[in-house]
Amino acid sequence: MRTPVVAANWKMNKDLTEAKSLVSELLAGYQDAATEVYIAPPFVFLNEVNQHIKGSGMQLAAQNMNAVESGAHTGEISSSMLKSVGASTVILGHSERRDSYGETDAHINEKVKAALAAGIQVIFCFGEQLAERKSNTHFEVVQSQLASGLAGVTTEDYKHIILAYEPVWAIGTGETASPEQAQEMHAFIREYLRSEVGADVADQTRILYGGSVKPGNAADLFSRPDIDGGLIGGASLQAADFLAIVNAAS
Ligand code: 13P
Best substitution site from 5, 6, 9, 94 to test ligand 1's pocket, by max atoms within 8 Å of Cβ? Predict the structure, then answer.
């Protein structure tokens, strides 16, 4: 039995006042339930958000992290900094980091290993582009992103990894993968885990779907056997929508 997960990726949205008001609305409506909930605000609001959500049952996540621990890396944030402000988790491999900031599978793999070594859980994102789906190479692409991005990860490490399949063509576009398309890919991913790392890891690893999840489509997506929750972008910026999605996962 896998505990469902719903994670809010605020991306580069909100100022401090708006972030505080979104968090208070979330806290007002949130009932600690069977679903694990993560809030990933921009770096500058991590500490503030943590002060409010501490003890609520919701957990703090960061949207990125540098693989290096400290030093001359202007503009970057390390694992110990994240831990010091209460982040239990970090999102790595997001398609926006891959596509707009040149992060390669090898680079992401270094970050994954650094986060795990520091005791930070990873939400590992991957997913195909539209052209790859159209050319029917989406399974190969996903398999290769998993193999490279998670190279060297042990069976034990998988206890601290949540996978997030986010087809790039469905992110922020309003076009969601159909529950059938998402389930088909999630079943493929679970089968891949079974053959690569064994049945226990395959059965226990949570695989989230991300890409235009909304209150209206969440329940159908989450009812599929291999979809264990969602990574939510746009709809996580409105408390009512995000809470409705959390409730759909419970
Ligand atoms: P949207 O929910 O806005 O499509 O974003 C999904 C996503 O990229 C979450 O990480």
Answer: 9
